[in-house]
Amino acid sequence: MTIQVKLPTVLRPFADGRERVEVEPSADATVGSVFATLERQHPALRRRLTDDQGTLRRHVNVFLGDDNIRDLDGLDTKLPDGAELLVLPSVAGG
């Protein structure tokens, strides 16, 4: 099983400069298990994606197709083989 994680420019330096990272989680993949694998492969991403309790940070949005995972089952959202996750940090300004 392979899952693609697409990272925004601001997070690429923490993943060896890569725009896309392939993750091979366990057979019953969830967003949380993909993030755990991703964070093991690229430890510098951990603080930027999840907090100390493993909860998705408030300013991080993750999309599975057109759906924000917060509108699904959050980090427990199950993923089919070949799924692509898009990670987008919130942007504020004024």
Secondary structure: elements and pairs:
Elements: E1 3-6, E2 20-23, H1 31-41, H2 46-49, E3 60-64, E4 67-68, E5 84-89
CATH fold topology: Ubiquitin-like (UB roll)
Helix/strand-derived class? Answer: alpha+beta
CATH superfamily: Beta-grasp domain
Named at the architecture level, the CATH assignment is Roll
Total strand segments: 5
Main beta-sheet strand count, sense and barrel state: 5 strands, mixed
Give the SSE string: EEHHEEE
Shape descriptor: globular
Q: How large is the radius of gyration?
A: 12 Å
Number of helices: 2
CATH class annotation: Alpha Beta
How are the strands of the biggest sheet laid out side by side?
A: 2-1-5-3-4
Distance from first to last alpha carbon:
42 Å
What is the arithmetic mean of pLDDT?
92
Q: Roughly how much helix do the residues carry, as a percent range?
A: 10-25%
- In total, the number of domains comes to 1
Give unreliable regions as ranges: none
Percent in strands: 15-25%
Summary keywords:
Sulfur_Carrier/Prot_Modifier, 2 helices, globular, ThiamineS protein, Beta-grasp_dom_sf, Ubiquitin-like (UB roll), Mopterin_synth/thiamin_S_b, five-stranded mixed sheet, single chain, 94 residues, alpha+beta
Summarize the structure.
With 94 residues, this protein is an alpha+beta fold.
Account of the 3D structure:
The model has no long low-confidence stretch (mean pLDDT 92). The chain has a single domain (3-89), classed as Beta-grasp domain (Ubiquitin-like (UB roll)), CATH 3.10.20.30. It has a five-stranded mixed β-sheet with strand order 2-1-5-3-4, with helices on one face. It has two helices and five strands. The chain is globular and about 40 Å long. The chain has helices spanning 31-41, 46-49; strands at 3-6, 20-23, 60-64, 67-68, 84-89. The chain is of the alpha+beta class and 94 residues long. Helices cover 16% and strands 22% of the residues.
